[in-house]
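Researcher: I'm preparing a figure for a lab meeting and need a structural model of a single chain. I don't have an experimental structure, so a prediction will have to do for now. The sequence is pasted below. Please return the structure as C-alpha cells so I can convert it later.
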Amino acid sequence: MQETRIPKHVAIIMDGNGRWAKERSLPRSYGHREGVKRVKDIVKAAAGLGIDFITLFAFSSENWKRPKKEIDMLMRYLDYFLIREVRDMHKNNIRFMVVGAGSPLPKGVQNKIKEAELKTRHNTGLTVVLALNYGSRQEIAEASKRLARDVLSGRVNPESIDTEVFSRYLYTFGIPDPDLLIRTSGEMRISNFLLWQLSYAELYFARKLWPDFKVQDFKRALDEYGARERRFGGV
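Model: Understood. Here is the structure written out cell by cell.
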C-alpha cells in the first residue's frame, strides 16, 4: 500500500455472500460464514492502519423479506458475532456500536447488542459500527418525526433547524460522516444505506464478491481514495 492519506471513516456494503456460495454449489449459509471471516480480517486491517470508524452494512430493513430459514441462520451468525468477535474486539481496544431500529430483532440479540456496546464503550481504538435492521429512508423519516415532536412541544424553534440540528436526530448522531464507501460484488448502487451521511463520500465499487474481498483489496480501495482530490463543492 502506498504512503497516502487514510480516511477517518470507511463504510462498506458487504455484498455477494449468497452469489459466492451459489457459484460453488454451496448453501447460502457457507457464503455468510465466509463473509464473517472477511469482517474479522478487514476490521483487523482497519485498526492497524489507523482508521477511526468502519461502518458495515450487515442487515437491512428490507432483508426481512428473505426466506425465514435464511433469516434464522443470519440471526444465529449475528448471535455468534456478538459473543465471540466482540469479545476479541474488546481485547484489542475496539469500540462496538450498532445503528438501526431495534424491533423486530430478537430480544436476545437486542440484549447482546446493549451488552457489547456497554462493554466496549470506553475503548479508544477503532470504532466498529454495525448497521443492523437499518434503512436510510426509514432513519430519515423517524428523525423527522422526533424533530417534529420536539418542535410541537416547544423544545426546538423551527427557525433554528439546519443540517447540523437535523443530524442530531439520526441513528448516527456522534459518528462522523464516512469519507469512503466501498461496495463489493460489482453492483453500483447505494441500496438505501447512509443516504444523508454519504453526501460527500468517495465511492469505490469492487467487482469481487464480499467473501473474496481480502485485505489487499481493501488497501487498494484506500490507495484509490488517497489519490482522489476531495473538494466538497469547492473549486
